[in-house]
Every structure is written in C-alpha cells, then in structure tokens.
Write a structure and sequence with these properties.
Two copies of one chain form a homodimer.
Chain A: H1 20-38, E1 41-42, H2 43-50, H3 54-66, E2 70-72, E3 87-90, E4 95-102, E5 106-113, E6 118-125, H4 128-131, H5 133-150, E7 155-163, E8 166-168, E9 173-177, E10 182-186, H6 187-195, E11 201-205, H7 206-217, E12 226-231, E13 235-241, E14 244-245, H8 277-280, H9 282-289, H10 303-315, H11 319-343, E15 347-352, H12 353-356, H13 358-372, E16 382-385, H14 392-407
Chain lengths: 417, 417
C-alpha cells in the first residue's frame, strides 16, 4: 500500500482540478486570436497585452510557429526563444477549413485558410429533395474530394455542412428540414463515413452559419448584437448576441419561420396554420405577384433570374408586383419586430431573396417596425441588406471550422522537423 | 520640442495600447470569482488554476485582503507574501449591495453582502401610479436610508432599481413603463441626487433582474440558457443566454408582452391591438375568471390573497375558474413557444402570478407547447415554477451591483491601516 500523496493545500475536495495542459491550450489560442484580431506584434507586447510573462509568451510563440500557425522572425525549432523584439504574425497558410451548403436546389462549397483567404469555391445545381439523402451525401463527398485535390498545400482542420432545418448539434443529425423532405438524417455520420478520418465534420443550421459569416467578414462585421433573416423557400433566423452565436440548449435556436404571425387559414409546409413563413417565404411573394402559369413561378428556372424579373416589373411600376412586395415587406416587419422586441439587435440583416429585393421591401418593413417595436427609435436597430449573397452560409461554415484552431491550436500537429 | 519616446516594439500603430492596471484589475476579479465559485483554496492552487505565477497571486491576494474582500491566514498588510500554503477565502462582510423594486402597488428593498447573505429586507405597499415619479423616488430614498442606517457595518457598493418597463441602461432613464404611467423618467439621476455620492445607482428592467436572481441563486442556478417570464399586470421576459443576461444593443431586450399573439380586437395598455399581454396578463385571467364586482377583481385588495382565492375556487372544481386558467395556460404556451423556437432555453421559469397559479397553468401550457414548438421534445425545454416569489427582482438587483466588485475589486477602497 502506497502512502497517499500529500495534497497541494488544505482544502481537498473543493473546486475543479487544475489542468495545466488546458491552461496552455487556452493561452496558445489567446495569443493566436490576438495576432488575428490586432495584427503582428512583438513577444514583449503580447506579454504586456495578455498579462502572461515573457518567458511563457516566447514558449507559446515557439510552439505556434512549430505548428505553422505563426511566423516569427528567428524562432528556432524546439522551443528556444529567439529575439523577443521581432514581430510575430499569423500564418496558417497550410491550414484550411471547408464550408458546404445543402439547399433545396443546389450544393455549394468554399475553402478558407486560417487567414480567411478563399482557396476554392464551387456551386452545383442539384435537386436535393428528389435525390434523397444518401445520393446527396455522395455528391457532397465527391465535391469535398475535388476541393481537397485542388487545395493540396493546405490541410483541412474541419468541415461544416449548412442545412436549412433543425440540426441536433451534438451528433449532427438533421432532425427536420421540411423543404428538403428530410427527417432524422444522420448527416455528420454519413459524411464522416464517406470522407474518412482526419477532417472532423459539423452540421449546422444555414441561417446560423450565415449570421456567423456576417459577423466575421461582412460590412457589419463585429456588430455584437445582430439578427440575420434569410428568405428562401423557408425563412431562417440566426442570432448573434454579445458577439456570440445564440445556439440555445440543443442548438435549435433561431426558428422564426413558424411563429404564428401569418393568416391562420393558410397551411404551412410544417403542417401548422398561420406560420410567419406562409406570409414572407418565397412562395408567398410569388403567389401574390404572379399567376400560377407565370414564368417567375416556374421553380425549374434559376431563382436569381426570376428575382431579377420581379425587380424589373417593380421598377416598371407594375401594380400587382409592387403590391405583393409591399405586402411581404409589411409581414417581414411584423416578424422582425418580434425579434427586435425580444433580443434588441443593433442590426437586422436581410439575406437570401430579402436582400435581392430589399430595396422594395425595406420601406414597408420599416413602417411596420415603427408601429410594432416597443422601444423608441426601433430600439436602436437598423435594417441592412446582406452583401455576401449566396455564399454567406458556406463562409460561415468554414469560419466555424477554423475557430476550432483558435480554441485549441494543438489540433494542428507540429510540422516534421 | 521633445524627441518622440521610442515605441516598445516595431509595429507601432497596430492594436490596443497595453494597460497594466486593467490587466491587474482583471486578475484581481478572476481570483475573487474563483474563491466565490469554487471555495477556499491556497495561493499555490490559485496560481495553478489561473495560470498566473505565484508571486503575482500572492500580491493579488494581499491586495484583496487589504480591501477586506478575502481573508488569508497570515497575509501582512502592504503586500508582503505570507505563508503561501494557507487557504484564502472570500470575505466581503463589510461590503454590501442594495436591490430596490418599484412596481404598480409596492416598493421593496433587499441588501446582500458579498457572500450573498441577506442583511436587510422590506416591502411596503405604495400606489406608485397615483403617487407619481418624484414622490415615489422620495419614498425609495427614505427606504434606502433606513436600510443603510440598519446595516451599519457593511458599506454599499451600489444599488439597482428594478422597474417594470423599458429602461435605457446607459443613463437609467425609464423610457416607458405603461403600468406605472411613466414615460422618460430619469430614475437614476433622481435617486443619485437624493442619495448623494458613494453608492452608484443602476436602473434595470424587473424581469431581467429576476432572471439574474434565478440564475445566481434559485434551484435552476447556473442553467446557461434560461427564459424567465413574469406575470403581473403586464408580462415581462428576461433571457439568460450562455450564462449571461441578454441585454441587447440598447438594453431593451425581453419585451415579450407586446408580441401580436392575442385577440386582434382587444386593445392593450400600450395602445396597440392584440398584444400577448392582453391574453396572459393578470387582467386577462381576472376578467375571464370573475365578474367585475367579484372581490378577486378588487385591485385595492392584496394580490396574494386574491390569487389564493382563485386557487381555492379551482381546487373546489369551479368551472369558470378552471376554464379561465386553461385559457390563460394555452395562451401562455403560444407565447412561450415563440421564445423556445427563437432562443431554445433549457428552462422556462414562470414567476409572478404564473408561479402562484402554476399548478393549474402548466398542463394547458405544455399541451400548447407540444403543438407549437418546432424542435422535438419541446427542443429540450422544461417549464419550472419560480421559488423566489416576489423577491426575485430585488435579489437580482443586489447581485448585479455586487458583480461590479468581481469585475473590478479596486472599487472597494483599502481599509485604513
């Protein structure tokens, strides 16, 4: 029987055990984020700004350089210190992350390196509901393989799939994506099996990822409180609160489309009545703007072309088109007011078709907000049209995967010496 | 002309200037929070757990002891180190904070010390709408003075006033509190003038403070994602997301009462039609449950007595009472479903009269949630009745003021040596 090791202090059993490795990982990430957000700087300045001591900073920088995440003038391999006055900067050209979007009629992919530079981008028409989940995942895997073959000098640290529906974040199962016709589809498992080990897969709601992309890179970047609303066949919402994505307890937040704010006689794709989606989704606009045999309602035609036709009619003063846009704009305001009253964002960002037709929607939407928002001056909110177009979700997906490196830089292995 | 001082490194003009004093304040707070959340521990263990070096920890502990915020075996005044093996623990008996609530028919006060112990508590009937803002603030100032006279050995670090309405957090102006009849009332300024310097005043929405109290001390303490709904004359919402109060960009979040989910023919106190408040506020229940001359509708009588009478009628099987409770319960579910779909909390906490009559409301509410929540199994949410009763808001207010000490322990002056 061995004698018990003396405890380090007199209060055994209280608190969490110390974990030096976790502290070290946290500090590596802190330094890496500082270099990303504030630019190159000396070890001495990093020490000042983080409150870490200089020897620790030198050792952290040496490790980050070893992993190819920073370049630092004359750091020597193996942790030796180098001249502490020379600037350290973010590198990460050898590290990349992949964003994929599955939607009703396309699949898209985009690859970013750690510096946020686009290494690969592609979009492919695909009838996902008709194809079904298995064949769709085959296509996605093929597209990912093509991207990896093209981007040979950067190793992917992760892949995020954007899906228009409810995603159980813990295991990447798409619980419900009515517009894809999917229920309980194990997207993470299916893709991981197809792609093999080495590139962790996440699955996330498309509006959440779009909100992240806007927060990370758009003209409203770093707006701490931001609501993203995307108009497609369905309506998605992504909420950034205090600079962080509001995921909620089960990753099921932002589900705005089924708020009972629509006409209670209209049946939604989800089976309920009066969902907001039935008043502001693409179908609501098209039904109000055109007869069933009008080419703008032909869903086999490219959406952007059809939206351009609607805009042209509105510009030409077509009464029915203008009325339809006004009606959708008002309804957009009704739902956006609920969001503003609840989460009080600085910016409501409109994406998807809301952005494309935004110049017709914002005025009636704002009039409705003025009636409905409880706080003065729209509680400080501005309505802004997204400029990221249809790449918002894939960009957000790549950013989420890159973030894992900032959380724990040891995920990137040291380079062979 | 003086020569420019040499810059500390070669990357002038990038990033934020270092601020050693801010780093020190942050580290003092980190140590103090560790002691509060994880209990007493040695300096050596604090160093391990924070990643700070031991000399820094000893100096931080000495400063905290000097300010009366911790006790540490044998720390000597003036920053000398003491024996580093002896445990350090939170003290703060000499530091307190005050929570005050203004509501339609009462004013309440509660004083907590840094350890969360109640030092003083009082509630006083007051017809706030009839009295008006100035006379009400006079009464509050008198009550605060009484509390300070009673709690002589603890110095208040701050006071938070809870108000049922929209509060502009930056200057503590109550923009709009329809049920008090207040608009643009400078509560912070008015109280600060009455109380004199030395005890900073904040003003905050009552539901936000109640949510903070539940998060800090209730049976659902530390639930990272929590929605608090309080039923009074109006309906208030407080949202905790990821362990932090969702304030929004202008501090105007959580305004659920005016979501257009009620009967569009019913006019709300705010002047709009169909607000959710008109379906679930206290008035909606009372109108449905009793005729105008019924004593339960006599607002000059104590609310808790009237609620007990309603509960007794329901227990006795009174049809009209049971129908009214079922109707309000369903309507409660309609609005709670919107919140669950948007922010996906783990817990929906019912406060105010919703808690008192909760055993009759939860069943119809849950039935409605099952129809309305988009995610499976209510998206992981549980409905829970608050146990803090009518002290939730004042407790939350005191906690918010105490938190400023954990953010910056140098707010508490060193004790005279």
């Amino acid at each position: 029987m061995t004698a018990p090791r003396p405890l380090p202090d007199g209060v055994a059993g209280r608190g969490v055990p110390a974990d030096q490795a976790a502290v070290r990982r946290g500090n590596l990430g802190r330094v890496l984020r500082l270099l990303r957000d504030e630019g190159p700087r000396s070890r001495a300045r990093i020490a000042e700004e983080t409150g870490l001591n200089k020897a620790t900073v030198s050792s952290l920088v040496a490790e980050l350089a070893d992993r190819g995440l920073v370049t630092a003038g004359d750091v020597h391999r193996g942790g030796s210190v180098g001249r502490p006055g020379l600037p350290v900067q973010l590198d990460g050209r050898a590290v990349c992350a992949i964003g994929v979007e599955l939607n009703v009629d396309f699949v898209a992919i985009l690859v970013l390196n750690l510096r946020g530079e686009v290494l690969f981008e592609q979009r492919m028409a695909l009838d996902v509901p008709a194809l079904g989940a298995e064949a769709t995942l085959d296509e996605v895997a093929r597209l990912v393989q093509q991207a990896r073959d093209t981007v040979r000098d950067a190793v992917p640290v992760g892949l995020t799939v954007a899906v228009p529906g409810l995603v159980r974040s813990v295991d990447g199962v798409v619980s419900l994506a009515p517009n894809l016709g999917w229920r309980d589809v194990p997207v993470l498992e299916g893709l991981a099996a197809r792609l093999g080990p080495g590139c962790p897969v996440r699955v996330e709601n498309d509006a959440n990822l779009s909100a992240i992309a806007e927060w990370a890179t758009g003209p409203e970047a770093r707006t701490p409180d931001l609501v993203y609303l995307t108009g497609e066949v369905g309506v998605g919402g992504g909420l950034i609160v205090d600079g962080r994505l509001l995921r909620g307890t089960a990753g099921l937040s932002g589900e705005v489309g089924h708020t009972p704010l629509g006409d209670p006689d209209v049946v939604c794709g989800c089976g309920r009545r009066g969902c907001w989606e039935t008043a502001v989704g693409l179908g609501a606009l098209l039904r109000a703007a055109a007869d069933p045999d009008d080419p703008v309602r032909d869903s086999t035609r490219d959406l952007e072309v059809r939206l351009a036709e609607i805009a042209a009619r509105a510009d030409a003063g077509d009464r029915r088109t203008l009325d339809a846009l006004r009606q959708v704009g008002r309804a957009l305001g009704t739902g956006a007011a609920v969001l503003i009253n609840l989460v009080n964002p600085a910016v409501v960002l409109l994406g998807g078709y809301f952005a494309v037709l935004g110049r017709f929607l914002v005025e009636p939407m704002t009039a409705e907000l003025q009636d409905r928002v409880f706080g003065p001056d729209l509680a400080g909110a501005r309505v802004v049209l997204s400029e990221l177009g249809f790449t918002a979700a894939v960009r957000g997906g790549a950013h989420v995967a890159l973030e894992t490196v900032f959380d724990d830089p040891t995920r990137v292995p040291p380079r062979a010496s």
